[in-house]
Design goal:
Mean pLDDT: 95
Helix content: over 70%
Low-confidence stretches: none
Structural class: mainly alpha
Largest sheet: none
Number of helices: 6
Length: 129
């Protein structure tokens, strides 16, 4: 349970911060995402770094029981799947996917979703509810 609470705090604070930052810095982030879609070496590097993070998360928290800790397990697997997509999909497909998600509505809806999920996880991790 210590790992679950630790990851709830980390994921919660990260998602809350990114959820608030994303709509506020949408134009800057959109430009960075577009630059990522044009940079093959950077896509590979991001894939490798996210792969390391995803493996650490999945190995440390692979808890498939009903309840809120399952949210952390699902997030860990999503991180790992994202890394594998960056590394295994052809670059052109990855670039097309990155550009497809690079829309104002995604930044606003995603930011709201991330902030809500972050608030939930931080609340659980810090024992607020």
């Amino acid at each position: 349970m210590e790992t679950t609470l630790f990851l709830a705090k980390v994921f919660g604070l990260y998602l809350l911060a990114m959820g608030l930052l994303t709509p506020l810095r949408r134009k800057d982030l959109s430009a960075m995402v577009e630059a990522l879609a044009d940079n093959r070496p950077l896509v590979f590097l991001v894939g490798v770094l996210v792969l390391i993070l995803g493996l650490v998360l999945v190995v440390s928290h692979n808890v498939w029981i009903a309840g809120w800790p399952l949210v952390i397990t699902v997030l860990a697997w999503l991180v790992l799947i994202k890394a594998l997509a960056y590394l295994l999909l052809p670059f052109e497909v990855t670039a097309r996917l990155v550009r497809w998600f690079n829309r104002p509505a995604w930044f606003i809806m995603g930011g709201a979703l991330w902030a809500a999920l972050g608030l939930f996880l931080a609340g659980k991790g810090f024992g607020l509810f």
